Amino acid sequence: MSALEKMATILPDTAAVNEKGHLTIGGCDVAKLAAKFGTPLYIFDEATLRRTCAEFRQEFGRRYADSLVIYAAKAFINRALARIFKEEGLGLDVVSGGELSIAKSADFPMDKVYFHGNNKLHEEIELAIGWGIGRIVVDNLHELSLVNQVAKKARITQDILLRLTPGIDAHTHEYITTGVIDSKFGLPIATGQAEEAVVKALSASNLKLTGLHVHLGSLIFSIEPYQKAIEIVFRFAAEMREKHGFTMREFSPGGGFAVQYTRDAPAPDIAYFAQAISAAIKSRSKAFGLKPPRLIVEPGRAVVGRAGVAIYRVGAIKDIPGVRKYVAVDGGMPDNIRPALYGSRYEAIVANKANKKALERVNIVGKFCESGDVLVKDAAIPRVIPGDIVAIPVSGAYCLSLASNYNASLKPAIILVKNSKARLIRRRESYDDLIQHDAG
Ligand SMILES: Cc1ncc(COP(=O)(O)O)c(C=O)c1O
After folding, report:
1. From residue 128, how far is each of 56, 58, 96, 214 by CA, in Å?
2. From the CB of residue 434, how many other CB atoms can be counted at a distance below 10 Å?
3. Which atom belonging to ligand 1 lies closest to the Cα atom of 257?
4. What is the pLDDT of residues 135-180, one digit of tens each?
5. What are phi and psi of 261, to 5 degrees?
6. For the segment 27-48, what is each residue's pLDDT rounded down to a tens digit?
7. Which run of H or of E encompasses 347?
8. How far apart are CA 100 and CA 123, in angstroms?
9. Are 125 and 99 in contact (CB under 8 A)?
10. CA 219–ligand 1 middle distance (angstroms)
11. Catalytic: 399?
12. In angstroms, what is the span from residue 217 Cα to ligand 1's centroid?
């Protein structure tokens, strides 16, 4: 089996190998892209991006007509991507004034933007309301009164959802589980805070309580946590209707849909999640006598993950006979902190040797001053020499958005490829960029 066949489910849709034995994405030779744009380089495949957007829209839409897919910008956003999501008819989930500004700069329709976050700042709320944001997803009681105050000053009635904590463990990494009671996010149902928020929201002068939201965590492989959450939230909504006259017009089970990173860890497809979530909402609406609400889904990782590939150039190779071989590349933890932060696993493919057999297992490591700066442990790759080009698939989500300038490194260039053409969508940082905000 060729490297490409082995990696087919984790590479972008358009990945192929050309007559030189080089990996191509979007019809572009990756080794040539590396030479032209430099490395580290992040490549986004436009076809894969648009396909996943359409798949989310269609798979949910055909099972649940009144649904809206909003892309969770935290996975990664810039202006070019925001324009694509807009064209694909998605809404947007933002968590900061920064993400909101990027959306604004792409003329994103503000009525399809949802504002999340556990500590939204006063000025961020003002900005959001001033720009006519669709929904603010209120996370706590402090924020509830803050949003009401800002809306009052702006003389508007702001649509809000309440983010609830259902008390569910999504069985993912501790840092990315969010639905448990002991979480900084959301209003717990069990403690009565969620009910208090419903009562306050319903009587607030400038708020319209449109619906309820939960987000259980990220990289969730099973539908069970979603089903449990839907049961809990719909029961709560029915209780709030009886006690306080609340109507749940919108409901969001959040995002968190897993993607496949390595060959041994396949993830369910979008249809699987769409089927289970739509069925649970219909059945629980019926069971609790509720009108089926509008469904808002918030995928981040599952939209951009597979569309992105990180490209590095091999430098130093350290062989410790009988122990291990280290292949160092010119990027690492500043552009992809996930392995160091969560122990995340990846695969690697040598882009200029895509037809060559994997002959050895090596650790692909970065160039930064931490031993934890390992991108891929035990990568099975052909023998490499300095100058070879390593591609790491499924790098579209939570790499660039978590990127830092550790060791005063330069954030990578980003390109979008389509129909054998590559377009720069973010230029590589320069040394001047590093000092431009220094004062004195
Ligand atoms: C509220 C909310 N919605 C959606 C997401 C997107 O999650 P994912 O990228 O796993 O789909 C997140 C991520 O943590 C989130 O916090």
Report:
1. 26, 29, 9, 21
2. 14
3. 11
4. 999 999 999 999 999 999 999 999 999 999 998 876 666 666 666 7
5. -105, -35
6. 999 999 999 999 999 999 999 9
7. none
8. 12
9. no
10. 9
11. no
12. 7
